[in-house]
UniProtKB/TrEMBL annotation:
InterPro entries: CinA, CinA-like_C, CinA_C, CinA_KH, Competence-induced_CinA, MoaB/Mog-like_dom_sf, MoaB/Mog_dom. It comes from the Bacteria. This is CinA-like protein. Pfam families: CinA (PF02464), CinA_KH (PF18146), MoCF_biosynth (PF00994). It comes from Deinococcus xianganensis. Belongs to the CinA family.
Length: 403
């Protein structure tokens, strides 16, 4: 299976001033196409260090992708580093220079002389057009220690990089010699170590592979298989995937591109949902914002307002707002007072004696489902976990509640 490597270029990435979303995108793209990614690295704007990183990558990878460093300034050094590693001399390409000048003239500006370097090419490089920016990419076909190698240089801005990758790079990449099939199972309510214990030997085998990843919405389990053809890969994947699904059925809420909010929307089956949040700062509403079944919401910690929404003074004085009883009453109130078919409530305590506790409840008028969260520490993290717990409760419960 071909091996790939990614080098993200830029001191701003190295120091954390910009989040490297490009490398994450490219890693997913490579995996989806049967390429094995062994290394990802970030290198600052230093010619010597970048050249050394390129040379190390070419020793071990069939495909090297560099992101960033294609601008016109002195600290944009990706072209220079590739040329130095391959011992080739860059020259201004006339067609690229004409294109760049045309871009500036179309905007009523004269092209600065510093932009000439963006028209550079080395003999082994092919220019990759950039329809939404001034920095062309490079597609380099070369050999290294007698082995064929591909080098792709992409611009740093994500909008430019993703379009160039899709339109220019993918058509030029050789078709993979192996097929990779994978499915990601989404779970909630069970920890990563418990999943690994439950899956047992499955997580220790190589092909198909079974790996766990902690996410905000729970733990993902990725099952992947590779084989010479897609049909063979699917046949290899199927029995292991079925076993994983069976072992984790109790905690599973979706697979692959499904989102937790989208799963709740599907489970509503045409019904509407009202939400009351107390102490979670509207995090649940934000997660539900794009779902058409989300009818209305109230976000408040004011006790007088909450009493008008269904919280009883008896519960407030006895159990307190952040209690199972409080969540139950507000879930019923979300349905009744917001005019929805179903009510979902979350109550969160981020300070004081009960800090770290939250309760969520779902009501359809006749039935109530509840869940609790205990996560002392960062208030923002507690709010997120409480909102996710509310969605997970709805995703697990609603399929069994017919309209």
């Amino acid at each position: 299976m071909p091996i790939a490597e990614i080098i993200s270029v830029g001191t701003e990435l190295l120091f954390g001033e910009i989040v490297d979303s490009n490398a994450a995108f490219l890693a997913r793209e490579l995996g989806a196409r049967g390429l094995t990614l062994h290394h990802k690295s970030v290198v600052g704007d230093n010619l010597g260090r970048l050249q050394a990183a390129i040379e190390r990558a070419l020793d071990r990878a069939d495909l090297l992708i560099l992101g960033g460093g294609l601008g016109p300034t002195d600290d944009d050094l990706t072209r220079e580093a590739i040329a130095a590693a391959l011992n080739e001399t860059p020259q201004v390409d006339g067609a690229q220079l004409t294109h760049l000048r045309g871009l500036f003239e179309a905007r009523g500006r004269a092209m600065p002389d510093t932009n000439r370097k963006q028209a550079w090419l080395i003999p082994s490089a092919e220019a990759l057009p950039n329809p939404v920016g001034t920095a062309p990419g490079w597609f380099v076909r070369t050999t290294w220690n007698g082995q064929p190698r591909l080098i792709v240089a992409l611009p740093g801005p994500p909008r430019e990089m993703r379009r160039m990758w899709t339109e220019q790079v993918l058509p030029r990449l050789p078709r993979p010699t192996t097929a990779l099939e994978h499915v990601t199972v989404h779970t909630h309510g069970i920890g990563e170590s418990l999943i690994a214990e439950r899956l047992g030997h499955l997580t220790r085998q190589a092909n198909p592979s079974v790996a766990t990843y902690a996410r905000l919405t729970g733990v993902d389990v990725r099952v992947a298989a590779s084989a010479p053809t897609p049909d063979e890969a699917r046949a290899l994947l199927a029995p292991v995937l079925d076993e994983v699904r069976g072992l984790l059925r109790e905690w599973t809420w979706g697979e692959d591109d499904q989102t937790l909010a989208g799963t709740v929307q599907d489970a509503l089956a045409g019904r509407t949902l009202g939400v009351i949040e107390a102490g979670s700062a509207g995090v649940l509403c934000t997660l539900l914002a794009d779902q058409p079944g989300f009818l209305d919401a109230a976000v408040t910690q004011d006790h007088r307002r909450l009493i008008t929404l269904g919280l009883t003074p008896v519960t407030l004085q006895g159990d307190g707002l952040v209690s199972e009883a409080g969540a139950r009453e507000l879930a019923a109130g979300a349905r009744e007072h917001l005019g929805a078919d179903l009510g979902l409530a979350v109550v969160v305590c981020t300070s004081g004696e009960g800090a770290g506790r939250a309760h969520v409840a779902l009501s359809d008028g006749a039935r109530v489902a509840v869940a609790g969260v205990n996560w002392p520490g960062d208030p923002a993290q507690l709010r997120e976990r409480a909102a996710v717990a509310a969605l997970a409760l709805a995703a697990r419960t609603l399929p069994g509640w017919t309209a």
